[in-house]
Specification:
Order of helices and strands: HHEEHHHHHHHHHHHHH
Strand content: under 5%
Radius of gyration: 20 Å
Number of helices: 15
Structural class: mainly alpha
CATH class: Mainly Alpha
Helix content: 55-70%
Distance between the termini: 59 Å
CATH topology: Ammonium transporter fold
Largest sheet: 2 strands, antiparallel
Strand order of the largest sheet: 1-2
Number of domains: 1
Number of strands: 2
Length: 403
Amino acid sequence: MDTGDTAWMIGASALVLIMTPGLAFFYGGLVRGKNMVNAIMLSFMAMAVISVAWVLWGYSLAFGAGGRFIGDLSNIGMRGIAVDSLTGSIPTALFVIFQMMFAIITPALITGAIVERFKFTTYILFLVLWMTFVYAPIAHWVWASNGWLFKLGALDFAGGTVVHINAAVAAVGAAAMVGKRRNPGVEPSNVPYVVLGAALLWFGWFGFNAGSALHANGQAVSAFLVTNTAAAAAGLTWGMLSQLHRKRMSAVGVATAVVAGLVAITPASGYVGMMGSLGIGLGTGILCYIAVLLRPKTGLDDSLDVFAVHGVGGIWGSLATGIFAVAAIGGTSGLIEGNGGQMTKQALGVLATLLWSGIVTLIILLVLKAIPGLGLRASEKEEDEGMDISAHGERAVVHDGAD
């Protein structure tokens, strides 16, 4: 065990965990006031449900020996993982913890597409099924040493496919299955919450990306630097586009752009240099700005633009990894260094994730919809009343009449 690596990875794991409350604030500020508690609880419950399911069987399915497509149950209930068991230079239990944080936030991302109308009790079961049958297999493909995409050489340093594309395509399927909101709000209920949430995500993302080096080394420092650079470039690009297009610079827009930039640099963070990260951030600001503008024309009520941010950003970032990868940083070169074949591997990883997540998520939702007493959507009365009261019996803000 390397004590420096271990200390860093404990801190990185905590940084990744804070991203889920950050997401809760981000989503909570974007919805109408009568649904704010519910939007926050959708993320908060992911922390509780996935934490338990991950140590019982999720980690074993994702990282157990198994085969090329799925792990096994050899580590069910943390069996076979002793206090002194090592993964590389860190305790295996710490690797379990670090990967748990990724498993927590990924299904929480999906909720942005279905807020203000999805049944909360059904969501809890959805979390368990989706982590088991969608997240764990794709994590195994990409990050397990015997996973088929890992062996192919597809690069995903910190979760462009496993986390962001995976969640985004599931979000599209869920939004289509649940249907449109009855009376969608016209503006966010709490802009400071949106910016606070984005700031917490930006802060936690350093653990997300730099921590994925699994060492306190130069690659981790490089990942930290390019993560910050891409996020800043995306926010600046979106803000300038908004100023040119609408003659104003929206705080929500820039906060969204920063998140999109963080999404896009995620798969590339351990493989690209600073100039590559600027290119990724610039491309993200342009592509995701256009995607958000076009989304209403699709007729799909992806309430908080999950696909426009995480899908478009994740796909661009995964493909851009194949363009900007530098051999001196991550050991693999990209198109700019003459390795055009890496683009094919990246595209295959994207396509495989889109297909598996899209198809299996729809199957899960169809099953949940058909089970008596469950279903996917709250009643019209509950939706009109607001999910805060109908699902939780609480309000985000209580006016006591004193003012």
